[in-house]
Amino acid sequence: MRRPREPQTGAGTPTALVTETSPKSAAAEAYRTLRTNIQFAGLDRPCKTIVITSATPAEGKTTTAANFAAVCAQSGSRVLLVDGDLRKPTLHRIFGLDNQRGLTTTLIEGKSLADVAIPTRVPNLSVVVSGPLPPNHAELAASRRMHDLMEAATRVFDLIVIDTPPVLSVSDAVALAAQMDGVILVVRGGKTSAEAVRRAAEQIDAVKGRILGVLLNRVDARNSGYYADHGRYYDAYYGSDHKG
Question: What is the pLDDT of residue 229?
Fold first, then answer.
């Protein structure tokens, strides 16, 4: 493995990374709760490679992947966040990174993920961006080389988090789900239909992917008594400075 590069800060603090910008907010606490739940889910069968996906586009899977990886790193784990969306990559924008060398570089040039991993300003968190977009997205996702890359990375990092395209849009996410330890399915409240979630879960189950849980995202607290109460109780516990 090459000597780690200096952490890159990009063009300012990313607003999508609320676990860094607002660590005491209710949103950041929700990601920490997700981290705890996943840790318990892996008591009998450890999860070192986790795919984060959604049934359809614009459900918040990439934001979830970034924040989940960040809170895991903040707990002391060595975390690698990989942009496995080789069609519409976004992680390089969230972290303000160059996208010239990344996952596709390792697949084409025979390098390891550790070779192209970029340390971020979040301690213990490194990112592998997508790299140049290939024409054969699905073939790369399902390749033996991809499996070997992830397996080798688990000997360097404690946790690998992979952001993927939506399940119902393309086959990449299902191909990766079949090779990794677990899947978190992100569902946008008030947008995603139950039928879409069911179909996505069936596709993951068909390749023997292990769904660790479904994360309900962007819930309208005004129409949900439970979530409104949760936010109120959280504010009461932390006080008026919880957004800091």
Answer: 46
